[in-house]
Each structure stands twice: as structure tokens, then as C-alpha cells.
From TrEMBL:
It is found in: Cell membrane. It comes from Tabrizicola soli. PANTHER family: NA(+)/H(+) ANTIPORTER SUBUNIT E1, NA(+)_H(+) ANTIPORTER SUBUNIT E1. The chain crosses the membrane at residues 62-82. It comes from the Bacteria. This is Na+/H+ antiporter subunit E. Belongs to the CPA3 antiporters (TC 2.A.63) subunit E family. Pfam families: MNHE (PF01899). It is a multi-pass membrane protein. The keyword Lipid biosynthesis does not apply.
Length: 160
């Protein structure tokens, strides 16, 4: 890894993707190369170091739980959108997390944001509190319990 190309495979993949998505020309090759090199340099600055994975089976179980929850959430949000809007109340929930690992937190952010009806708004690293927006909030304590027992517990098993 050099200072100019800290991630040569990432850079090459981004250049190729750029050329596939645009008409391949000399100008797009130059522009795609600039984007690829720039993205590689940015990614190198964001790296937190090697991730210590303790349990692959926890991640496999988490993938199954998340897949099931996304299907359920899609159905629930579709019903809410089609039905009367009177009964829906959006809101914010603060959830104290025990998870500190950056990779685990990034996965949790992707899970929450990728699940219809929820959005990860912010995480205070000092206090460990996650601010979550919920499309149809009935009981904040249910959401705290869900995030901590279904997702955070498996992420702690995998990364802590």
C-alpha cells in the first residue's frame, strides 16, 4: 500500500464501475481515476484498524434476524401508508447502547437505517446513546428492548 494508492483494488473497482456506468472515453477514464483515487484516500483516513471478529455464527444469526425483520417492517409500513394516517404517530427514541466497537456500530446503523420505518439519527460516543426515529412509535420501551436484545446482543457477541 502506497500513500497515493492505499487501496489499489478499491480504486480499480471504482474506476471500472465509473466506466461501466458512463460512456467509456478518455475524459471519463480521467474523471473516474480521480474519483477512484480520491475515494481510496478518503477510505484510508476513515479506517479504524483491524476488526476483531469473535463469532461468525452470531453474524449469521443476525443476518437471519435482520432479513426477517426487514420483511415484517416492509409489510407493516405498507399497511400504515395505505391505511388511515390518523393512528400513526412518529417519534424519537433514545437508546443507551453497550456496543462500542466501530464496526459493530456501523453494522447496527446499516441495519436500523435499512429497515423501513426506522432511521439512525445520531450516536453520542461519550454517553453511548443512540437517537432513533420511528415512523410509527407506540411505546419507546419496546424499541429499546428490540434494538438491545435482537441486534445489539448479537453484535456484542460477534465483536466485543
Amino acid at each position: 500500500m502506497s500513500r497515493i494508492l492505499p487501496h489499489p483494488l478499491l480504486t480499480l473497482a471504482l474506476i471500472l464501475m465509473w466506466l461501466v456506468l458512463t460512456r467509456a472515453s478518455l475524459g471519463h477514464l480521467v474523471l473516474g481515476t480521480a474519483v477512484g483515487v480520491g475515494a481510496g484516500l478518503v477510505y484510508a483516513r476513515l479506517e479504524t484498524g483491524p476488526t476483531r471478529l469473535r463469532s461468525v455464527t452470531a453474524l449469521v444469526r443476525l443476518a437471519g434476524v435482520v432479513a426477517l425483520d426487514i420483511v415484517r417492517s416492509n409489510a407493516a409500513v405498507a399497511v400504515l401508508i395505505v391505511s388511515s394516517r390518523r393512528h400513526r404517530k412518529s417519534g424519537f427514541v433514545e437508546i443507551p447502547l453497550r456496543l462500542q466497537d466501530p464496526t459493530g456500530l456501523a453494522l447496527l446503523a446499516m441495519i436500523i437505517t435499512g429497515t423501513p420505518g426506522t432511521a439512525w439519527l445520531e450516536h453520542d460516543r461519550a454517553s453511548g446513546v443512540l437517537l432513533l426515529h420511528v415512523f410509527d412509535l407506540k411505546d419507546p420501551e419496546d424499541w429499546r428492548h428490540l434494538i438491545r436484545t435482537r441486534y445489539e446482543a448479537l453484535l456484542l457477541e460477534a465483536f466485543a
